[in-house]
Amino acid sequence: MSRNGQQDPTHQFRTLVAKAGRKFARVRDLPAYGPGPGTTRYLAKVFKSYMRVWRYQQEHRPQLVGSGLQRWEIGDIASRIAQLYFGQYMRTSEARFLLESFVFYEAVLNRRYFDSPGADLEESKIKEWKIVVQEIVRFVNADKAFPNGRPLRYCAMFDTHPDSLPYVARFHAKKALKLHDAILTSYHRNEIKFAELTLDTFRMLQCLEWEPSGSSYQKHQNEPPTNGALKEYSATSGMIDLNLAADMSDPTLPPNPKKAVLYRPKSTHLLAVIATVCEELPPEKIMLLYVSSFSGTEVSSVAESSGGSRRFSKNKVSLATSSTQNEFLAHIDNKKGYLSDYYDNSLCLSPHGSRGSNNLYPGDLLPFTRRPLFLIIDSDNSHAFKAERGEPCALLLSPSRPSFKSPRNLDESVHGSQFTLFLTAPLLAFCQMVGVSVSDRDVEVYDEAEYIIANAVAKWEVMLCSSTKVDLVWAQVLADPFLRRIILRFIFCRAALTLFHHVESKEPYLPACLPHLPEFVSPDAEAVESYICRLASHLNVSDCFDSTSY
Q1: Tell me: the pLDDT tens digits for 22-60?
Q2: Would you call the peptide bond into 518 cis, given omega within 30 degrees of 0 as the criterion?
């Protein structure tokens, strides 16, 4: 206590920091999906605690600096607030939280809070930050885009095509579905990642959000001090506005779909998340599941694994006796492998092994096809999911192998998945495939290339939305802009890969979709092939393609 009976500011500040830190530890690892009322209320309490800490250090900064407050301590508080905002963005997909997170991270970086030679950081934390920096450098180098490149997010300026708007507006299906939730997970050996966000999931995450427009997303400027003095940031400074109540939502845009990004989950964890999302999925909505991985270990026999049948243990089927089990398995074997297609092949989800709960089998997803499902499988074993025979769902499957003109590009750990790149940045994927490098000198060339792709997509969009021959599974989702754009980019991807030269059989190099899309958007359809040829000619790579349209 101070002499006048008031509590010492330094002691009060340390007390507030300790309380906020305890609450932060409890929410830091909360799952970024399905927050219940209790979780939401506790998150609000943590935000409130750090609001008090931040404002207290602003109001008592001279006393705190005089008593030894270090710059790195301010940086630690700012970074935790940034983490809270980013976590809330991941839970809600509201861009205003992402912006607030950026404001605090930018302040930590620009003011170099952790660069002070007196920063009392643990050696273990220094090593952790060095690893983070290395990951960021590798991530940024791999995610290089074109100069003045278009955003991965859905942008009304680039992704809305005036010629097709009347057809989209008049398009009616028996039941139109809008994307409400997306579950994204990726695991590859030596994959490019930053913390727990891989390059593939980052690209897909961006692809399922609206690009902010207008001035409502401009950063809030700090109000000038009442005495007119300029704010200084050269010493210990915490002068960052904590504007929790600011509503920076763009009123012209609908809400972003909710997204859960899972990092190397066990299959039981992934299925639990899918079940939670399915349970809470509102009517007239659809869920997207994106899995990018490599093939797991094949199961060679029905009765493999010590606990009985691996296939049926995955579905938690309990068999009373071994004789009953044998009779049941014999009956199943007589069904011409009806279930073997579901559990003979799998995807590996984590580095902790290649069996059991580390694998995802096609049959694991059968129960969830009872709800509207849009499934994207990006794997060398994606063909295994053709066996999925539950309720009809939209299914996009990657090729088993990538296609590149240059052999040095075959390592997808350097650039990320080719199929995912086609779905999120089609021109960049096309250029990587044919070996065209990104250069500042070619801005006009790439702009024209984007224009060619935009014209192609607009034409295909009109054809799909005005046709009565589109399967109901696809027709139900064409009204959703995110899913419609993914479908159109799949058409572009399939055509480009089909017409691309290969010395071997083309089948392993081609993507697939179920149910089938109409023939008028197939790779050999004139309305599709002509645009691939036009793009190839524009980029001077016509020799890379087989076509009758040249």
Answers
A1: 988 888 767 666 555 567 778 888 988 998 998 998 899
A2: no
DSSP string, 315-377: TT---SSHHHHHHHHHHHHTTSSTTHHHHS--EE-STT-SSGGGEE-GGGGGGGGGS-EEEEE
Give the tokens for residue 170: 């008049």
Q: Cα(256)–Cα(94) distance, rounded to whole angstroms?
A: 7
What contacts 16, CB < 8 A, 6 or more positions away? 49, 52, 53, 56
Question: Collapsing DSSP states into helix, strand and coil, what is residue 396?
Answer: strand
Residue 179 pairs in a beta bridge with 286
pTM, full prediction: 0.81
Q: Are 527 and 429 in contact (CB under 8 A)?
A: no
The identity of residue 520, as a single letter, is: F
Among residues 154, 155, 362, 168, which one has the least CA distance to residue 267? 362
| Distance from C-alpha of 154 to C-alpha of 165, rounded to nearest angstrom | 15
pLDDT digit string, tens, across residues 96-136: 888 888 888 888 888 888 776 555 566 666 777 678 778 88
Determine the distance from the C-alpha atom of residue 383 to the mean position of all C-alpha atoms in its chain, rounded to a whole number: 22
Distance, in Å, from the CA atom of 127 to the CA atom of 281, rounded to the nearest integer, reads: 42
Query: E strand or H helix at 197, and its extent?
Result: strand 197-198
Q: Considering Cα of 153, then 156, then 159, then 160, what sign does the dihedral take?
A: positive
Confidence band, pLDDT 50/70/90 cuts, at residue 223: very low
Cβ atoms of 489 and 520 within 8 Å: the answer is no
Q: Which residues contact 216 (CB under 8 A, 6 or more apart)?
A: 248, 249, 250, 251
Q: Among 381, 25, 27, 351, which residue's Cα sits nearest to residue 190?
A: 351
> Bridge-partner residues for 286, per DSSP?
179
Tokens of residue 423, six digits: 């779905």
The type of residue at 107 is: A
Taking only Cα atoms into account, the Rg of the chain, rounded to an integer number of angstroms, comes to 27
